[in-house]
Amino acid sequence: MTDQSSDHPETHRVRGNFLEDFVVGDTYQHPLGRTITEVDNSWFTLLTMNTNQLHFNADFAEASPHGRLLVNSGLSVAMVLGISVSDISQNAIANLGWTDIELRNPLFVGDTLYAESLITATRESSSRPEAGIVSCLTRGLNQDGVEILRFNRSVMVWRRAEADRATRFPTTASPLAP
Questions:
Q1: pLDDT (tens digit, 9 = 90+) per residue, 87-106?
Q2: What pTM was estimated for this model as a whole?
Q3: Which CATH superfamily is domain 19-35+76-160 in?
Q4: DSSP letter for each residue of 21-41
Q5: How many CA atoms lie within 13 A of 39 on its CB side?
């Protein structure tokens, strides 16, 4: 949105939700899906020093009960969390915790992850009046709608009145011009 009332328009764009935007019972089908590649899986697995060959040795994985490379469950959880950020924690001060992580079905290299979240609770923060706590149940689905995993999450988010504190863009001496 651009302010047309001055000689020097300012651009303002606030993304994500604030405490006041969350309503218990609302469901967010997060807008982005992500296909997991073999490189994603191998790099994450080796970076985190997971030595289970089901994640990076195709020959080994083919001889397993799954018959193919299995996506590292840590990567699966991290991807579902990341997919949910735009709606749940874009304006977070801090993640407060994840509980009850359940791995319900395997995810394979080449599968696409989607995520959705159900808001289960909201409350004001007792320690930070400028923020509140949002709790949700988030699940990851593959391209066929099969639930891969789910977890409960709590996050501290800014109130809308604090939107300027929730975002940052550097100030420049020269405005953007054609």
A1: 999 999 999 999 999 999 99
A2: 0.86
A3: Hotdog Thioesterase (3.10.129.10)
A4: G--TT-EEE-S--EEPPHHHH
A5: 0
